[in-house]
Design a protein that fits this description.
CATH topology of the domain at 2-197: Aldehyde Ferredoxin Oxidoreductase,  A, domain 1
Number of helices: 22
CATH superfamily of the domain at 2-197: Aldehyde ferredoxin oxidoreductase, N-terminal domain
Strand content: 5-15%
Distance between the termini: 20 Å
Bound molecules: iron/sulfur cluster
Number of strands: 16
Shape: globular
Radius of gyration: 22 Å
Largest sheet: 6 strands, mixed
Helix content: 25-40%
CATH architecture of the domain at 2-197: 4-Layer Sandwich
Length: about 600
């Protein structure tokens, strides 16, 4: 496998062969991206041209291993200033892997708006002035019509304008896993899109066919037996990721009214079952996946993908909007503008609270469809207060003189669940390298409400002590980092074990991993992220939840009176977690600056 260093300033492309040692130490995907950033340390501002943006794929992407399809983006976030990564499914990751590249490391700034074509025959930088100002969804469809069998990741107007909460869309949707302002980074490089040409002959070598056939049968049987992932009967397959909103709703754990409450009457109206009966058009899937949990929906004249669980809780319950079709429309609007729908929704919720409390002049109320449409537009184009809101929930609260309205950790908002109802959830958001913004389905074992969804949570058979929670959060982080470096969908971990992945990597990528070395890989990745953050000016004193969760009690419902106090958990966590210096491990990676 290769890495390409693309310098947009002079449109140069240089290929480097990737050493097997580096793959064993950091994997691909998130791990490879983080290791490349650490190896080629740049500590200037995230939107400076030299600031790198890595697109990478995990070790199993491009192979027939089920649910292995994630495309990773790794960068220093313009929103949080920490290291950040994003994982997105669909087909782009498999297309990139099929070209033989494990990672694209992009630096510099094009003189004119450009896009990249990545194919088996190499990488080209192409002028894209004709795409200037075009929305991200249309950009994808224009480039797909030009390039035929291709997958496209594109920025919208918000990205071109370097709005800090700008994102990218992947094949016209799927921006939910992509937070931290990657669209702004694309804009800072004058890079409108990346086109991944689907390869004709993906280069996958199966070391031992008989063994692989046996493994595949084992994995397929596990998917069939899963009460979440079975194609016909699994809860995620039948109702999509919004099934989470129902479990959280029943357990009074949703973000409601900018996290001022944890329960909202009528939450079922925006759950997965409601979607199935109201506005579902089709079930969609990603490459190499029999589950099909993605949703094609309609709302107010748009046909789109989603909303998923995260968009429902941010644009929906947190803004007191319980109309699925309206949430669908607003989600699609975010795709077009190239705005992170989660941060956008949570920022509107902050703005509504500020308006209620008289910190802003305008009285905007809660959940007004017309107001929300206008605010999304204004964020993307920097109109009026939209110029502030485009900097995210935290900056909005600070700018309007009420930082206590912020629901953010390190400058990015917590999503999906209220930490006071789900304390381990609050804690993981505090200690994750990229700040808030952790996805609930990436850490489902930490969510008490998911007991009822048959997830094997850390709460199921006992009442964990604080020591247990601190240790388990770290172990989950290690495991998630390792899985992210394999490029597998987070849902696959609900059915497969570490041994399953290790067998897959060894057969399909000809490596000799063990479960232990896989977990070491996860530890290396976490250590590299900490080192990057230290060099960016962050340390453990930044691992804090906002006062909204630590000092304000839940006003009513099942969790009335609760706060999420994590100081003791933090000290237990840092007693458990001992990162090793990783500089020696980086020598197998190329210098790309
Ligand atoms: S389970 Fe859902 S998100 Fe995961 S790979 Fe399959 S369709 Fe994509």
């Amino acid at each position: 496998m290769k890495i390409a260093h693309i310098d947009l300033s002079d449109a140069s492309v240089e290929d480097f062969e990737l050493d097997a040692t580096a793959l064993k130490l950091f994997g691909g995907g998130r791990g490879l991206g983080v290791a490349l950033l650490r190896r080629n340390m740049f500590d200037g501002e995230p939107l400076e041209p030299r600031s790198p943006l890595a697109f990478s794929v995990g070790l199993l992407v491009g192979t027939p291993f089920p649910l292995s399809n994630r495309l990773s983006m790794v960068f220093r976030s313009p929103l949080t200033k920490t290291v950040a990564w994003a994982q997105t499914g669909g087909y782009a990751g498999s297309a990139l892997a099929g070209t033989g590249y494990a990672a694209l490391y992009i630096t510099g700034r094009s003189e004119k708006l450009s896009y990249l074509i990545v194919s088996e025959n190499g990488i080209k930088v192409v002028e894209a002035e004709n795409l200037k100002g075009l929305d991200a969804v249309t950009t994808c469809s224009v480039l797909k019509s030009v390039h035929g069998d291709a997958r496209v990741v594109a920025a919208g107007p918000a990205g071109e304008r370097c709005v800090p909460i700008a994102t990218v869309v992947n094949d016209m949707g799927r921006s939910s896993g992509v937070r931290h302002g990657v669209g702004a980074l694309m804009g800072s490089k004058n890079l409108k899109a990346v086109v991944f040409k689907t390869p004709k002959n993906p280069p996958v070598v199966v070391k031992d066919h008989a063994w692989f056939t046996k493994l595949l049968k084992r994995l397929q049987e596990k998917l069939r037996r899963s009460s979440l992932l079975n194609h016909d009967k699994g809860l995620l397959a039948l109702y999509g990721t919004p099934v989470a909103a129902e479990a959280l709703g029943r357990n009074h754990a949703l973000p409601v009214k900018n996290y001022q409450q944890t329960y909202i009457e009528g939450f079922e109206l925006v759950g997965g079952r409601a979607m199935s009966s109201k506005n579902l058009l089709n079930r969609l899937t990603c490459s190499i996946c029999p589950v099909s949990c993605r949703r094609e929906t309609t709302g107010y004249g748009v046909r789109t993908e989603g909303p998923d669980y995260a968009q429902i809780s941010s644009l929906g319950t947190n803004c007191m909007l319980l109309d699925l079709e309206k949430i669908t429309y607003l989600t699609h609007m975010c795709y077009e503008l190239g705005l992170d729908p989660i941060e956008a929704g949570n920022t509107i919720a902050v703005y509504s609270q500020l308006s209620d409390e008289g910190y802003v002049r305008e009285r905007i109320g809660w959940g007004s469809f017309e107001t929300m449409k206008k605010l999304l537009h204004d964020m993307a184009y920097g109109v009026g207060d939209g110029a502030v809101l485009g900097r995210g929930a935290h900056e909005t609260a600070v700018y309007f003189n009420n930082p206590d309205a912020s629901p953010s950790v390190k400058g990015i908002s917590v999503q999906n669940a209220d930490p006071r109802a789900e304390p381990a959830w609050g804690f993981i958001n505090a200690v994750e390298s990229f700040g808030g913004g952790v996805h609930i389905w990436v850490y489902p074992r930490l969510i008490r409400s998911f007991d009822e969804l048959n997830v094997n949570t850390i709460y199921q058979d006992n009442s964990p002590t604080e020591q247990d929670i601190a240790e388990k959060v770290y172990l989950e982080q290690v495991w998630v980092a390792a899985a992210d470096s394999l490029g597998v969908c987070a849902f696959s971990r609900l059915a497969f074990t570490p041994t399953d992945y290790v067998d897959g990597v060894n057969i399909l990528r000809n490596l000799d991993l063990t479960v232990e070395t896989l977990m070491d890989m996860g530890k290396n990745i976490l250590a590299a992220e900490r080192e990057l953050n230290n060099l960016y000016g962050f340390d453990s004193t930044h691992d804090r939840l906002p006062r909204k969760f630590t000092e304000v009690e839940v006003p009513s419902g099942k969790h009335a009176g609760k706060k999420c106090e994590i100081s003791r958990l933090l000290s237990l966590y840092y007693m458990t977690r001992k990162d090793q210096p990783i500089s020696k491990l980086l020598s197998s990676l190329p210098r790309l600056s």
